[in-house]
């Protein structure tokens, strides 16, 4: 414990606290000062907790500290029973509680600071399930979870980058290596320039090469634009397909739905909700209240023994037997009119049970349907994110299968053609190889002839010029074809867009009318919902008032019941004391001497006489001891003096023996010297 306090004092005297404590001043801190010190340390870990505890209530301070310690994963020592003592000690500022907490916090301040920072963004807010039924709340919750995951990933990347940071030595080595590569490239460029300068018309050839590079770059950019336009066209087709599917669904809904059917659905929903509000929910609340009442009654009861349990079981059996007897009597003595009513009551109870069961099934089916709709929306969103399309219906899937079969046959045909072309390509490659060999031989002969004539390199230069001109003409043709294809594609797209607009115009008109109808129905539904909400709010206020009243009555009942039990216990103890007093009086008045001896008065009288006799004996013994105390002390002093005298004589005798032995040794040593 002393090492712990010393460590705490050392840490508090350092930055950023600088408290200038010593062991005595720290140990003499009061409970309020200790709590303020703990709040300062927590404020250093999380700046939100840097507050003055005098400005808040003790319960708020304890709750705030307990919440942060729970986030920091502090585990107080001891069992569950010790946790209540820990909370109480934290409220009162006990040293035995606060010193270990300070020691644990100051040991790992940097780690806990990081954990508190992460807790601000990673402690998930628990949203009740009934709120998640709303689509807007569910979307916000999903977005919140996605942002939390993104924050986790970014924090991990940040930590990895901090750990795996490059040193200056590595950066310098990379720079030096890049400079060496730059020098090598410069030297290579110089060598290539020297080699090119010997070739005739090298400037013109360089210009042609530059134009060729520019044309290739332009070709790549045109190909990229073509690919982008293809992807845009694909996405536009997908959007068109989705719009068509939504339009079909809306048309199907509009074709099947009429105002009467919509009103019927609304009436069914209102009836179901009114049944829930008026019958099912009050019944469930009543059952919950009764169960809570019985549980509170059981809690208020004192601890029961095995005998009490057996007594209660026997009482329950007796009550059950009485109930069975009453039921038998009623069955024997029933009347025909009552039998008819009982039959109707039985049917009504069966129907009510079936109705409750169906309502529960309907509620479960609605919840399952809403969960399945959320799952479908999640799968659709995931498919959109991955670049996929909507989930196909049965007809669309059949069309897709037929298209796939036609594509499969087309693929097999093309694969056979590719095999034939591959075989022909092998033959052509062999022919090309033979022609290349002949060409190389002819080139060697031509070079030998050019060397003899003194015009070496002429054929190579001419071939290069022809090849460059051919490539340029091919590029011009491809460029013209590409521009023509793009213009045709743009025209086709414009025509398709105009055609789609013309075909969708009547559908859009119908859709506008349907939207107007939908808005009217939505407005009416909102009004009904407002009425329902106001009714539900009134019922809720009445329910809360009744709950408060019932709660007060239950507390009053529990208090009266505890008073009743206490008065019964006191009454029982007083009855026992009264019974004992009556028995004592009866025995004392009785003429029988044996019974008189059994009375408490006689017993205490005997004990008092025995104690008085014992006191007399002890006083006599004390008198004898006082009389013999002086001579005995004198005799003891004489024996102590005699013991000291004998001890002194013994020491003198031992010294005399030691001196005699030393003298004898000296004499023997002198004789030995004389002999020598």
UniProtKB/TrEMBL annotation:
This is Intraflagellar transport protein 81 homolog. It comes from the Eukaryota. Component of the intraflagellar transport (IFT) complex B: together with IFT74, forms a tubulin-binding module that specifically mediates transport of tubulin within the cilium. Binds tubulin via its CH (calponin-homology)-like region. Required for ciliogenesis. Required for proper regulation of SHH signaling. Plays an important role during spermatogenesis by modulating the assembly and elongation of the sperm flagella. One of its GO terms (cellular component) is ciliary basal body. It holds the Pfam family IFT81_CH. GO terms for biological process: cell differentiation; cilium assembly; intraciliary transport; spermatogenesis. It comes from Vidua macroura (Pin-tailed whydah). The keyword Cytoplasm applies. Belongs to the IFT81 family. PANTHER family: INTRAFLAGELLAR TRANSPORT PROTEIN 81 HOMOLOG. It is found in: Cytoplasm, Cytoskeleton, Cilium basal body. Residues 137-253, 355-382, 483-563 form a coiled coil. One of its GO terms (molecular function) is tubulin binding. The lineage of its organism: Eukaryota, Metazoa, Chordata, Craniata, Vertebrata. Keywords: Acetylation, Cell projection, Cilium, Cilium biogenesis/degradation, Coiled coil, Cytoplasm, Cytoskeleton, Differentiation, Phosphoprotein, Spermatogenesis. Residues 3-126 form the IFT81 calponin homology domain. Gene3D superfamilies: Intraflagellar transport protein 81, N-terminal domain (1.10.418.70).
């Amino acid at each position: 414990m002393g090492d712990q306090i010393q460590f705490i004092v050392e840490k508090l005297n350092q930055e950023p606290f600088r408290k200038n404590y010593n062991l005595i001043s720290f140990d003499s801190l009061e409970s309020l000062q200790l709590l303020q010190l703990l709040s300062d340390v927590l404020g250093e870990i999380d700046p939100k907790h840097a507050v003055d505890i005098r400005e808040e209530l003790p319960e708020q301070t304890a709750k705030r500290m307990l919440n942060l310690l729970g986030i920091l994963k502090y585990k107080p020592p001891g069992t569950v029973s010790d946790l209540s003592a820990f909370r109480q000690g934290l409220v009162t500022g006990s040293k035995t509680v606060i010193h270990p907490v300070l020691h644990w916090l100051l040991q790992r301040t940097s780690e806990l600071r990081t954990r508190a920072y992460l807790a601000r963004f990673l402690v998930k807010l628990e949203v009740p399930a009934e709120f998640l039924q709303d689509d807007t709340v569910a979307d916000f919750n999903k977005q919140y979870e996605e942002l939390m995951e993104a924050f986790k990933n970014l924090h991990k990347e940040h930590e990895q980058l901090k750990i795996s940071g490059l040193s200056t030595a590595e950066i310098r080595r990379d720079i030096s290596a890049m400079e060496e590569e730059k020098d090598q490239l410069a030297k290579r460029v110089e060598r290539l320039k020297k080699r090119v300068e010997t070739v005739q018309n090298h400037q013109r050839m360089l210009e042609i090469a530059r134009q060729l590079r520019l044309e290739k770059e332009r070709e790549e950019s045109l190909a990229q634009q073509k690919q982008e336009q293809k992807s845009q066209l694909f996405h536009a087709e997908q959007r068109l397909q989705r719009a068509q599917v939504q339009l079909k669904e809306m048309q199907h809904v509009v074709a099947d739905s009429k105002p009467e059917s919509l009103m019927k659905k609304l009436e069914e929903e209102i009836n179901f909700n009114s049944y829930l509000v008026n019958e099912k929910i009050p019944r469930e609340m009543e059952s919950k209240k009764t169960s809570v009442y019985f549980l509170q009654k059981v809690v208020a009861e004192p601890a029961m023994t095995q005998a009490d349990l057996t007594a209660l079981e026997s009482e329950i059996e007796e009550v059950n037997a009485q109930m069975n007897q009453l039921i038998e009597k009623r069955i024997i003595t029933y009347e025909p009119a009552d039998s008819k009513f009982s039959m109707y009551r039985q049917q009504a109870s069966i129907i009510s049970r079936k109705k409750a069961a169906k309502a529960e099934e309907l509620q479960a089916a609605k919840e399952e349907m809403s969960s399945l709709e959320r799952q479908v929306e999640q799968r659709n969103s995931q498919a959109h994110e991955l670049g996929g399309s909507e989930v196909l219906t049965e007809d669309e899937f059949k069309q897709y299968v037929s298209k796939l079969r036609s594509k499969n046959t087309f693929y097999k045909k093309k694969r056979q053609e590719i095999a034939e072309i591959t075989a022909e390509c092998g033959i052509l490659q062999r022919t090309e190889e033979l022609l290349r060999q002949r060409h190389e031989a002819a080139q060697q002969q031509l070079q030998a002839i050019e060397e003899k004539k003194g015009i070496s390199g002429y054929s190579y230069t001419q071939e290069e010029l022809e090849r460059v001109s051919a490539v340029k003409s091919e590029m011009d043709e491809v460029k013209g074809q590409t521009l023509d294809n793009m213009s045709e594609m743009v025209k086709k797209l414009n025509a398709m867009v105009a055609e789609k607009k013309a075909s969708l115009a009547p559908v859009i008109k119908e859709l506008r009318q349907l939207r107007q109808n939908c808005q009217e129905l939505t407005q009416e539904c909102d009004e009904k919902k407002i009425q329902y909400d106001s009714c539900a709010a009134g019922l809720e206020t009445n329910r809360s008032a009744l709950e408060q009243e019932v709660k007060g009555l239950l507390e009053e009942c529990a208090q009266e019941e505890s008073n009743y039990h206490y008065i019964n216990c006191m009454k029982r103890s007083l009855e026992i004391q009264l019974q004992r007093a009556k028995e004592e009086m009866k025995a004392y008045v009785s003429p029988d001497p044996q019974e008189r001896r059994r009375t408490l008065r006689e017993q205490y009288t005997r004990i008092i006489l025995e104690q008085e006799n014992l006191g007399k004996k002890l006083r006599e013994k004390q008198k004898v001891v006082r009389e013999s105390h002086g001579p005995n002390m004198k005799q003891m002093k004489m024996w102590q003096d005699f013991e000291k005298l004998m001890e002194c004589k013994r020491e003198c005798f031992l010294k005399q023996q030691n001196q005699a032995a030393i003298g004898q040794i000296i004499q023997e040593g002198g004789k030995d010297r004389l002999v020598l």
